[in-house]
Please model this.
Amino acid sequence: MILGANKVFVRRIGRELLLIGLAGMTLLSPAWAASAVPLPQLISSHGRYELKVDGKPYFILGAQVNNSSNYSATLPEVLPAIKDVDANTIVMPIAWQQIEPRPGRFDFSFLDRFLRQSRQHRVHAILLWFATWKNGAPNYCPSWVKLDNSRFPRVVDRKGRLVNSLSPLAKTTLDADRTAFAALMTHLKAVDPRHTVIMVQVENETGTYGSRRDYSAAASRLFNGPVPRRLVRALGLRPGTWTQVFGRHAADLFHAWNIARFVNKVAAAGKAVYPLPMYVNAALRGPFHHQPPRPYEYGGPTYNAIRVWKVAAPDINVIGPDIYMRSSRLYCKVLQQYHRFDNPLFVSETGNAPVYARYLFATLGHQGIGFSPFGIDYTGYSNYPLGARRIDAHTFAPLALEYRLLRPMDSLLASLSFEGRVYGVSEPDNRHSQFIRLGRWEAKVSYDMPMFGDSPYKRPRPLDGGAIIARLGPNEFLVTGVHARVSFALAQRHSNEFMIFNRVVQGTYRYGTWKFMRIWNGDETDWGLNFTSRPQVLHVHLATY
Ligand code: DGJ
Model:
């Protein structure tokens, strides 16, 4: 035991010395230092995904700031919130208007300050490139772009009216955007040799509200022509015009194809200088409403367009859903839709109201690589009714509880998840219990239970429960959660064999190392394993008698 602990200590000291050494070397030789800390990377195997940061598995416990918090003046109101929720990753916009106010004149002073302060707060960062599209519109473009319709044309709707969304078919817009993005990535590479920034979102909620596609003459000519061979081949369809191949979905998918190709070219220009993992986020469409299609943000990576996006944008590693649906039925459906063999699940945004925090557990259960609520800062803005009405430390308390619970073992969970060993569930809106099959065992997760006895509470309580179970061996499990009871039984009930807890050990993880605290028994196990609002982690050894 002691030897093991010493080894870990020596390894950590060694790593810290290495980092101090690297920091010194950085001044002399940034190129050498850049290659010494491994580049963040997304790896995949058998349809499962793992994000590696500093060479180790990483689960993003993210916190996205509000839209206009990307200025030095707001950092004092941002960083305390990140600390309060105990996020390991801060998600920050970098606006095109901010870095290139005049063509070719770049200003990265905010980014430099932000990186310094993130490092001081010991968090990693994700940057959001707010450029040609921010919620479909060009509002974050510099004035020399968004006010010049002839050089940077807007989408034209069916009736010939201008829409506040730039056309994905304009080469001038693409060239200006990718030049600015490449400049950003070049600067980032030079100033971030330790890879504080682990991933970059390219654009934000791309697409167009109010028109299914660009109806300009040039766009319509392309729309009436053949679907590119690459796309029909990848989808296994017969060649033809857009309408012949996709019928009534043709306009939406044509727009998606063009936007995805544009975004891919921006991402590729950035990766050519600095190949960080890159992703896009989706403004969702109702997950159950195929017929008749309701208006949505056309052309973005909504679930109906994911396959088109995958073919058009191979340099985009992840398509993340922005989930602002409070209902557990809708939320879990979206998790299913974006957890795919060809796509790692990353909840790129979700509401900051307490009711959303529970979905971190279901995200882990879907082999997610991260979870990142939106609007985590104290600048005073609230995006209610999407998120919380009132914002203070109390609002973020359920999220903070979960992050505090999971952060000490985030790397362990990411690696167990990559091996397919993690199961997770969130409290449903109208159900009292859920079942998870674990080999010969079955776990029951129930909510609304007191710690003693089997009668549920009468008074309704907030929806904030969830649990995760990781399979460490055939009869051994890591179990944790909040406001939930976890019980175990044999999946196949034999007449004369019954489950017994051999040992239920409570402990803590520090730097991935398990430390024993005590054994739970008696009241603490007689009614199942009850998780409350304390960060408690158990190793459970099951047996039969
Ligand atoms: C989704 C967008 O991606 C965010 O930037 C923000 O505008 C929210 N919607 C709404 O607060």
Observations:
- Confidence is low (pLDDT under 50) at residues 1-34.
- The pocket of DGJ is lined by residues 67, 135, 204-205, 281, 322, 349, 374, 383, 386 (CB under 6 Å).
- The radius of gyration is 25 Å.
- The first strand starts at residue 41 and ends at 45.
